[in-house]
Amino acid sequence: MIGQLHRADFVPPAGLANRHVQTLLPRLLPRRRLPHRWETLTLPDGDIVELTWVTPGPEDPAAPLFILFHGLEGSFDSPYARELLAAADALGWRAVLMHFRGCGRLPNRLPRAYHSGDTADAYWLIGQLAHRYPRAFKVAAGVSLGANMLVKLVAEQGGDGLDLAGAIAISAPLDLSASADCLQQGFARVYQRHLLASLKAKTARRLADLPLDLSAERLRGLRTLRDYDDVVTAPLHGFHDAADYYRRASAGRWLGRLELPTLVLHAEDDPFMPPNLFDRLPAPGESVRVELACHGGHVGFMEWRDRQWRSWLARRVTRQLEDWTPTLSGQPRRLPAESEPPSR
After folding, report:
1. Has 131 been annotated as catalytic?
2. Pick from 145, 122, 279: which is nearest to 225 by CA?
3. Is 75 part of the annotated catalytic residue set?
4. Which of 36, 99, 237, 298 does the annotation list as catalytic?
5. 270 catalytic, yes or no?
6. φ and ψ of 95, to 5 deg
7. Share of the chain above pLDDT 70, in %
8. Which of 144, 171, 250, 311 is an active site residue?
9. Given the residues 171, 229, 270, 343, the one annotated as active site
10. How many CB atoms lie within 10 A of CB 209?
11. What is the per-residue DSSP string for 74-102?
12. pLDDT (tens digit, 9 = 90+) per residue, 330-340?
């Protein structure tokens, strides 16, 4: 334990500890096949989000429910998504991923997108699932952008504002401005180019419908995620500029006020964030357990186990879901232990 931080038990294979190797390896391995079905939900404002459910899923409506929120430009096809959903399914949990607006199979309907601090859709979905499965024990997990969003949502709603027993945040960019700076350095610029190309292509297809003072030529000329957030994300979602967006959407400042049991998993060599990320943030509250690994990269954490590549993240999340599963007395085993409206 380092102060209020704990050392994760992830050990990378010999010779494969490099942060970029760990970040890229899951994307180079064969993608897990996972039976699934899609569901489209209409949001209160008339827009849509798409859900992907692992099938067949448990028949018992009271079976535990695992809700996953993906990262920037992620989806059900992201390697981590399939591994985490499969892990929950293997435990007998009902497992579902919510695609942020425009990240599923269909374009969203309204002239807007999604962002790191947009908690309203996740809040609404959790409420819908509470009505659909009122007796189910529920845990939510977020990855990267989805993890920052989830931490912010948990902070906004307090201990009793969500029908969740716990939350898991993986590789969360808890300081968005620092993350944007890191993605402009060295090899991390490769990740930035990949993410930026996806965002720009999606925006270009809808540019005529978006309330932006932005030409196609200027959009093509954007070179960094900070530039994109300055001229697209911020004005599209009511922020003054990228700096205002990063300040208001970063969830790290709320670590000390989380009341819901929360597990935070992070690699100190994550190329998307500075190595001293948690030195910049408030001390975690009593309900929060932060586990830091020396290695792992960004949503990597690949280990060689039982003579094959396996996701340590899936193994660690499996253990946490088992620890949080209600006991025979009906009380969940928990981590050591001011509600605000959800944000757009």
Report:
1. no
2. 145
3. no
4. 298
5. yes
6. -125, 130
7. 94
8. 144
9. 270
10. 11
11. --TTSHHHHHHHHHHHHTT-EEEEEEPTT
12. 555 444 333 45
